[in-house]
Amino acid sequence: MHILILFEYMYNMKKTRYYIIMYVLAIVLVFALPNIFVKGNILPNKGQYNNEEKNIYDFIETTNIKVLLTSTNQVVDMGLEEYIKGVVSAEMPASYEIEALKAQAVVARTYSLNKIIEHKNSGNTLHPDADVCTDSTHCQAYLDKENRIKKWNDKGEDALQLWDRIEEAVLSTNGVIITYNAQPIKAFFHANSGGKTENVELVWGGGEIPYLKSVETSGENNYNQYSSNVSFTYNEFKQIMKEKYPTFEIDFSKDDCISIDDRSDSDRVQKITVGNVSISGTDARKIFGLKSTNFDFKKSEDKIEFFVIGYGHGVGMSQTGANELAKNGYDYIKIIHHYYNDVDIINME
Ligand SMILES: [Zn+2]
Hints:
Layout: H1 2-12, H2 15-38, H3 51-62, E1 65-69, E2 74-78, H4 80-91, H5 98-122, E3 132-133, H6 145-154, H7 159-171, E4 176-180, E5 183-184, E6 189-190, H8 201-204, E7 227-233, H9 234-244, E8 258-263, E9 269-274, E10 277-280, H10 281-288, E11 295-299, E12 303-309, E13 317-318, H11 319-327, H12 332-339, E14 344-347
Parallel strand pairs: 1-3, 6-13
Antiparallel strand pairs: 1-2, 4-5, 4-14, 7-12, 8-9, 9-10, 11-12
Zinc ion binds near residues 132 and 135.
């Protein structure tokens, strides 16, 4: 109805007014069209994010986050993006491909946001006075610019050039995070998967998480810590086990005194029987200080030797895998989608 009135009006009006209206319409179209096509593609904008988390992001963008420096037991205030630079600098070699570093920045930002929300919702007994800590086993490792540069200088590396790469990775992905069902995901990552990442529930138990599924990742053996081995004398082995399991007994003369009972599809040990004790691969990894749960062992006359593939828990993004994908032309968006199933990558700016 309104359109008909407009046409009737335009038909009756003077030519100059008609041209003015057409001119305005043309300008509106030229500026609006690119937006219509760009929005909602790879990086949906803030509007698609749910309000509660948007507010938390806005909050930590405008007020600093509190970081517990575990080395000095000191809580310091800093901007989120400043903190992310320190996380990337501590968690991934700066010599890695720039797209891998960008993926790491997005993963680190997402992981932090998830932790902060989790701590705000269900409390945080380990550091109630800080949003995050610098213990990599609880939150993420962190190394500030000064200390990072000093470490590189000590090794004779081009520190300023390396720091520039960290800055570029963080600044060029400013505000970008990974979400699933409009929530920042648990963006786990590890150094090297050994060729295949792991389903989250096979590492820490609990339920399946749809975006943390095992995926293949090639070129992992290009990494210098892809394989490792550790050996223990019978005595050392016994002592380590007894410390954890006081009733532990083993008869090393028996061929089957140690047996791997179950492995996952990615070859990680799920269950291992050692003497009279049956433990998970994750516990065995912890107890014997193995780099991953993808291991085998050899019993010789007086010692037990473990042969290990990969480095880390194997859940989420493999950092060496990300670097390999980047070498093969993947950008950070494609890298993230490779490791996290069905997620959205959202720019919150
Ligand atoms: Zn923490």
